[in-house]
Specification:
The protein is of the alpha/beta class and 244 residues long. It is 39% helix and 20% strand. The strands form three sheets. Strands 2-1-3-4-5 form a five-stranded parallel beta sheet, with helices on both faces. A four-stranded antiparallel beta sheet has the order 6-7-8-9, covered by helices on one side. The chain is globular, with a radius of gyration of 17 Å.
């Protein structure tokens, strides 16, 4: 199946459909209630295998995946989903699973929430991810015009990035980080600046999460032939590279 843009799954005016995957029925119930109270529609699955079938059938706007599950865990499910779609993924993880959380971001997750969690925080993160995925303005790019730097071309309206004519597939979080940098190509961004570009609603995000997103963007551009899409400014943060 051809990889699809997230915009196939969510359009303004639609009731947002969220896939909730967790082997704990209580967590599924709590998350489903919180999402539906916020005006979304939730469909749920108890493990990864069941969820993969639901994902293909329901085409959700976003998936919430528990990392630790029987019958295909959240990380394995994320890998399978990324073969067919760039729909946003939010991971649920235990507090002592930091390595798994980082791996989750590196294989294509957009964000994570640790257990135990506040349903209000979870809904806020879901809304923030959907807003980014639907092309919410960032940095100085309020009009949605095409941005370019070196051999990179980013088209916000089409949710598309190309390097030297070759498409580079990014998650919504990665897309907005790059979009913000392209809007101010000379700026050196501290991690707090990157968090502001990528996340809304004053959500706390660790420096390690930011570093994981940057590393993943770099890996994708290296695969496309660009070795310097984002450079490290030691002691400060990151800046856009030469991109040639």
């Amino acid at each position: 199946m051809e990889i699809q843009s997230v915009k196939r799954y969510y359009r303004p005016g639609m009731t947002k459909k969220i896939l909730v995957v967790d082997d704990d029925p209580h967590i599924r119930e709590v998350v489903t209630f919180a999402l539906e109270k916020a005006g979304m529609k939730a469909v749920s699955a108890k493990d990864g295998r069941e969820a993969l079938g639901l994902f293909k059938a329901e085409q959700p706007a976003l998936a919430i995946l528990d990392i630790s599950m029987p019958e295909m865990d959240g990380l394995a499910l994320c890998k399978e989903v990324r073969k067919i779609s760039q729909v946003p993924i939010l991971f649920l993880s235990s507090r002592d699973d930091e390595i798994d959380r980082v791996v989750g971001l590196e294989i294509g997750g957009d964000d994570y929430v640790t257990k135990p969690f506040s349903p209000r925080e979870l809904v806020a993160r879901v809304n923030a991810i959907l807003k980014r995925a639907n092309g919410a303005p960032v940095a100085n790019d309020d009009d949605g015009e095409t941005l370019s730097h070196g051999l990179i071309v980013l088209e916000p309206e089409k949710f598309r990035v190309k390097f030297d004519g070759r498409e580079v597939t990014l998650t919504s979080t990665e897309f907005n980080i790059l979009r913000g940098m392209l809007a101010r190509p000379e700026k050196v961004f501290e991690r707090d600046n990157i968090i502001d570009m990528a996340y809304d609603d004053n959500i706390h995000v660790s420096d390690r999460t930011v570093d994981s997103h940057i590393r993943h963007v770099r890996q994708k551009f290296i695969a496309a032939g660009c070795k310097s899409v984002i450079e490290t400014v030691h002691g400060v943060g990151y800046k856009l590279g030469t991109c040639r």
